[in-house]
Design a protein that fits this description.
Radius of gyration: 18 Å
CATH superfamily: Metallo-dependent phosphatases
Low-confidence stretches: 9-23, 160-164, 166-170, 281-290
CATH class: Alpha Beta
Order of helices and strands: HHEHEHHEEEEEHHHHEEEEEEE
Distance between the termini: 47 Å
Largest sheet: 9 strands, mixed
CATH topology: Purple Acid Phosphatase, chain A, domain 2
Mean pLDDT: 80
Number of domains: 1
CATH architecture: 4-Layer Sandwich
Helix content: 25-40%
Structural class: alpha/beta
Strand content: 15-25%
Number of helices: 9
Length: 295
């Protein structure tokens, strides 16, 4: 019998993760009941890379705690199947995130999972729902102002993945190595009282080919959204949060939870913002200036 994705009770990771009992889940649900109205119409997050040392699980749990919403989109690379096949890494905090997402669905939030390239195994379950989490190849989100946004991970617009997947795996290994160096560097910076700094993000902005790749990716995704008749697109994949217009098409990238800790949120009035989550105990979330999408 075919196993389900990690959100399924009894699914792909069930035996190795040890899901809590129904009684334990009910207790957790009761503990989380706040009777608070959703603060946002929708939240889009992607590129969590659960199952890797780089995933900032505690930060995401804190973000979700402070950001209730009506619809939560998981825009690909949620579980990192590439890394897990090479080396099993799944601490309790990663399991806590999976349980948090399942609780969101149980409590009435619509949770839509659009797989990416690192969790491409979940594409085999498109059209199914597991624990209330709907698996879709792509999604359409309509904002409060009536704008139709195409929701897709974006890996299909990455020529390296489409034409030379082996090179994508090599690049993934190099990226993971850079993140490992970054963790050691930031431990040293913390001892010196310096703030967090991302080496990989710095390289993305300084290396000409990386800058050109990001620009080409944004243009390709936006043009395809326009060809399909959408007003805009929401994607992930390149770990570069952005809201801008590309040839008249609204391009939104929700970033990642490995480096930038960013999410795209839609307010009740249709405003879209990129939230850079520093933690409620530290400061209010920094946001990219809100964009009110005109009807």
């Amino acid at each position: 019998m075919r196993a389900g994705p990690p959100f399924a009770a009894g699914g792909l990771l069930h035996n190795r993760l040890g899901y809590p009992s129904a009684q334990g889940s009910q207790a957790a649900d009761a503990a989380e009941q706040t009777h608070e109205a959703p603060r946002y119409r929708a939240i889009f997050i992607s590129d969590l890379h659960i199952g890797t040392p780089g995933f900032q699980a505690d930060a995401l749990l804190d973000f979700l705690k402070h950001h209730p919403c009506q619809v939560l989109y998981l825009v690909g690379d949620i579980v990192d199947g590439w890394q897990l096949r090479r080396r099993w890494f799944w601490p309790q905090s990663h399991n806590d995130v999976v349980q948090k997402l399942l609780r969101r669905a149980r409590k009435g939030c619509r949770v839509i999972y659009v797989p990416g390239n690192h969790d491409e195994f979940a594409r085999a379950f498109v059209g199914h729902a597991f624990g209330g989490v709907e698996v879709q190849e792509e999604a359409v989100h309509v904002t409060a102002t009536g704008q139709r946004l195409w929701v897709v991970h974006g890996d299909l617009f990455d020529g390296v993945i489409q034409c030379a997947k082996w090179l994508a795996h090599v690049g993934d290994w190099l990226y993971e190595f850079t993140l490992k160096l970054n963790r050691h560097l930031n431990r040293l910076r913390a001892r010196l009282g310096l703030e967090y700094w991302s080496l990989s993000a710095y390289l993305k902005h300084k290396v000409k080919k990386a800058v050109n790749f990001i620009s080409d990716f944004e243009v390709a995704v936006a043009h395809e959204a326009r060809r399909r008749g959408f007003d805009g697109v929401v994607c992930g994949h390149i770990h570069h949060a952005e809201i801008r217009r590309v040839d008249g098409v609204l391009y939104c990238n929700d970033g990642d939870w490995v480096e930038s800790r960013t999410a795209l949120v839609e307010h009740m009035d249709g405003r879209l913002e990129i939230v850079h989550w520093a933690g409620a105990a530290v400061s209010k979330a920094q946001v990219q200036p809100a964009l009110k999408v005109a009807a």
